[in-house]
Amino acid sequence: MQPSLTDSTETLNKIYDVSIELLLTYGPKVLLAFIVLFAGFWVIKGILRVLDVALSTAKVEPTLRSFLGSISNAFLRIILLIIFASMIGVETASLIAMLGAAGLAIGLALQGSLSNFVRRADFVV
Question: How many other C-beta atoms can be found within 10 angstroms of the C-beta atom of residue 45?
């Protein structure tokens, strides 16, 4: 048996009503989250520029400047993405715990290399 035209129209109207309701409920929240995301990327770019100028003024070695800029960039972007995920409704507690565990593991794995790098940076300064 084929569905009638009125059944199809009613189904489309229900889908349309639900879509409008979801758009009105979640649309502003998602729009604001994307605005914060793009503004955050713009602010991070400015912060990194100021950091680079400050390190240049302090006559820090270019290798160390690049390293600190990269670490700062990654750290700030991770924080921004966590804020973005939180704004759109993603549960972030487990994500933060996972990042903390990964940071600890990476720190322990690179302990020797980082200590040599810091020792060299102290020698240069």
Answer: 12
